[in-house]
Each structure stands twice: as C-alpha cells, then as structure tokens.
Hints:
Blueprint: H1 11-23, H2 26-29, E1 35-36, E2 39-41, E3 47-52, E4 58-65, E5 71-77, E6 80-89, E7 93-100, E8 103-112, E9 117-123, E10 126-134, E11 140-145, E12 151-158, E13 164-170, E14 173-181, E15 187-193, E16 196-204, E17 210-216, E18 219-227, E19 233-239, E20 242-250, E21 256-262, E22 265-273, E23 279-285, E24 288-301, E25 304-312, E26 315-318, H3 328-337, H4 339-348, E27 360-366, H5 373-388, E28 395-399, H6 413-426, E29 433-439, E30 442-443, E31 447-448, H7 462-472, E32 476-482, H8 489-493, E33 498-502, H9 521-530, H10 537-554, E34 563-565, H11 568-581
Parallel strand pairs: 27-28, 27-29, 29-32, 32-33
Antiparallel strand pairs: 1-2, 2-3, 3-4, 4-5, 5-6, 6-7, 7-8, 8-9, 9-10, 10-11, 11-12, 12-13, 13-14, 14-15, 15-16, 16-17, 17-18, 18-19, 19-20, 20-21, 21-22, 22-23, 23-24, 24-25, 25-26, 30-31, 33-34
Helix pairs in contact: 5-9, 6-7, 9-10
Amino acid sequence: xxxxxxxAFFFGLGLSSALLVFTQTSLGTSQLQAMMDSKLTFAxxxxxxxxxxxxxxxxxQGRLLWTNGEEYSGDFKNGLFHGQGKYTAPGxxxxxxKYRNGLAHGPGTATYxxxxxxxxxxxxxxxxxxxxxxTLDGTVYSGxxxxxxxxxxxxxxxxxxxxxxxxxxxDGMMHGAGRYTTASGDIYEGDFxxxxxTGQGSHTTADGRIYKGQFDAWTAKGKGEMTDEEGNRWVxxxxxxxxxxxxxxxxxxxxxxxxxFEYNYYDGKGKYRDAAGNFYEGEFSSGxxxxxxxxxxxxxxxxxKTFTGKWKYGTLIEGDHQFTIHSSGAxxxxxxxxxxxxxxxxxxxxxxxxxxxxxxxxxxxxxxxxQEVFRREIKFLQQDLAPRFNATERSVFLVNSQxxxxxxxxxxxxxxxxxxxxxxxxxxxxxDILLIxxxxxxxxxxxxxxxxxxxxxxxxxxxxLGDMLDKSGIKHKxxxxxxxxxxxxxxxxxxxxxxVLTASSENRRSFGCADESRFxxxxxxxxxxxxxxxxxxxxxxxxxKSLVEQREQKEDKKPSKPQIHTTENIENKLRAWRKAxxxxxxxxxxxxx
Length: 593
C-alpha cells in the first residue's frame, strides 16, 4: 500500500534539441569540420547521420549521437525531434514514440534500466494522460497520470503481492472513491485518503464477514455495522475494529442483545433474549452474564417463570427465594459428611426384578454440576421413562447439581462404580437389561466430564466405564452417552449383548448444553420425542438422529453425527422385555456394527 513516485526523466530531451538548434545557427555551422554524404560532426562532438534540408537544418530521417553515448534515431523537423523516434540515455532510460518540437509528445514507451516501464501518453516531455506503469517486481498501474508520471485520476493498480485497487488517485496515491481487493480475497470499498482506507466504506473478508460504516487507516472506527459469515449482526460505534460502547447484536438464530459492548462482547448493562425466547436483563462481562440480573424463561422451568439472581461469567451462583444455589463450601461439606450415607441408602432401596421375565434397570448420570440442563434431562428420565418402563424401584440416579445436593447421590467415579456393582448383584445377570443414560460435557481425551463446585472430580473415561461393566457381570446392556465426542465410548463398551447410542461421533461436538435449557439437542430428541413414540431403542435412535440433523441444519451447526452399535442378541432380548412388559414391538432392526 506504499506510494511510489515516478520523477520526470525527459528534461534532457528538450535540452538536447535546443543544443541541436544552436549548433545549426551561423555560429554553429561556421565551425563544421567537414560535410560529406549527410554526415555531420558538430562543434560539441556530437554527430548526425541523415537528411538535411537546403537551409542546413536537420529535416527528415536521421540519427544523432552525443559524446556521452546519448542517442536519438527518428524524425526531425527544423532541427528538432519531431515525429516518430527513439531516444536513449545509457544507464538511465530510453523513450520510443511520438515527438513534437523536440519533446516527447503523444503515445510512447519509456523504459528504465531499473526494469520499470511506462507506456502511454506524453505531453511536452512529461508523462501525462492515459498510460500503464510496470515495475520490476510486477506491479502494474493502468490509468490516468499527471505530469511527472504520477498516478492521478482514475486508474487500476495491481501490486506484486496480488492485491488490486480500482478507483481514484491523487499525486501518486490512492485517493478518493475506490475498491481494494487483497490477494487473500478481502475487499475494501469506499473512501481512500493518501493510500489509506479512511472515511466511509465497507470491508468484506474472504470468509464472508462484512463491515459497513466509518474507517480510519483500514480499521473500522466510528459508526457502523458488522455482519459475520453466519448472519449475526453487530450495530454501534466501533473502535479499532471492535464494537465498543452502546450497540445491538442480532443473532442469525433469532437472539437479540441491546446494551454495552467491549471488543464485540456484551459488557456492562444490557438486555438479552436468546433464540428460545428466554430473557435476561442485567449486568454482563466478556460476553457472559456477570453480576446481578433478572431472568425470565420463555416457558416455566422447574416451575419457575422469573427469578432474580447473581451470575459469575455465565454461571448462576446465587438465586432468589425460589431456589438455592449451594456454595462450593456447602457442596464440599455435603460430599464429606452425607454423600456416602445417601448413596448407601439409595442402593439399598433397589428392588430385584420378576424372575419369570426380563426386567429393565436404569442408571442415570448427570455429570456436570454447574449447568442444570443435565439434571433436568435425568429428571425427565426419572419421572417419565422410568414409570413407563415399570423401572421406578429398579433405578438409581446420580446427579451433580448446584441447586439440589440432598435428594440424590452425587455422580463420581466411586458412586458410579458402586452403583454398577450393586446393580450387578440385584439383577438377573442373564435375563435382565441395564439401561445407562449418562449426560454431561465431554472431551476426546478424558471422556464424560464429572464436575461439581467445591469438588475436584475425575472424569469418567470410556475404558473406566467398560471395566466397571465387565466387573459387574451384567450381560445385557443399553448404554447411552449424551456428550461432545461421546463416540469415543462405542469401542470401549460394545460387545455382542450391548447396544451403544451416542450423541456424537468421536471427533464431533453435540449441542444444547445451557444452564437454562430443559434438554440437550440429543437428549430431547431421544428421551422426549422418540422413545415414547417408537417400538424399539434402535428405532428411537434413528428418529432422534434425524431430528438432531434437521435442527443442526436449520441452525447451520456442524453435524454432530450420532452413533449406534447394536446386535441381534441385544435386539432379541429387548423384544422379549417389551413383550413381557406389554409394550408394542415392531420388526427387529438389522444389526449395526
């Protein structure tokens, strides 16, 4: 974006022609040493070969050579370069084109020893008019130039790095209205001032982000609006490329924010409505709810419509009189003094199944305690599906929740292992079926996240869960893992009598993990929308997968790719259980590896 200037190199042409006229005056011609066959030698040592008129003036075609090596070949008139010709100054440049009265005038080409070249119009010895400049590094300018060869007026500049500018120039610089396109695909269109994109305009990035508004030195500064490649839109006052101060955000998903910003993030006082219609008014920091505020659900959740609370970087840490957010200390105290007693009491209450038929046992795990969506998902399993499957007395639910630490055991490596081993003791290992539903965040490295305020918990890895199940001796199992990267559990848990369903493949994220949500995407599709309306878990999975795919596509999210492993053995056992329970049973699904 640097400016580069082209000095006038043609002052020598006028001086040389004037000298030529001088040497043909009575004083000059009196000093001619000889005159033979139209070859002249002048007093200054220069020589001429060509046509001379009856008055002794150079007229017509000829070649003039100076002692310093400069040379002109072409048309002469009245002793001056006039017509078509070529002038060469060794070590400097050459010019070939039209001349008038001793000066380059009209179309021509100037070539410099540096490798630069100008091809275009000249006026009285200066580059002036329409022309094309080409530099040694490949930079090319085509358009209007002013005297001295400066880019001036309308033109097109292509730089050696592939960047391109089309628009107005002044004094050799981009100045006025124009369009600048980088080699990487970014486009700046609008006002330029002295080679800088400054004023009113737009910037479109190669990946589709667009900013329209005020700029200063190529950076968004002042009033403007920015729309990213997904259709999200920011409007307000920008500083150094970021929305800072009061503004608005409109999400492509329908969410909306109005209030303070800092570096494009919500900051200060503001109002936010999410895509689901939930509304928050209060304090923000770094894009998160942070400080005091009022939250209103679109639909009541946990029988609550509106509450006042306190947040810390997006996590609710204090509630109002309607519910309690337990502190880290309270949770730690509970874990130390009460957790084992609650777990033992829960496990002792497990009832065996009917020895005359296969029964379903359920283990629900809500692993992440700082977002209530996982607790709510397990609550639905407990209150809706467990009674539906006649498994209320044969179910255990391990839940990490900062709102509820007394009604159920916590989800830890130890509690999960003790529960699985106890289920193995109570179940008919050859005939009964264990359904595990585990929901939380997840990672490729450590598996299912186990987290609680005030506690340092170890995550549940796929291998650890596989080992626990092997030790239990439980034969028939349906293992459901709803988490990011949950596909990592498939190989560690699957066998000929185990069905495995996961919310995502081993290298994909799943969606819907928000404190205010009732379900994750996969959890809602499987538990609420599919299982109650299908006649097998594998059919429910296929329907849930389709629902998740439709939702992700609508919201332009990267597909999570839910996974399933099933076999004929587990399908047969599930059909026998459904028949004994009186549930509808359709045709068996074909086994999947």
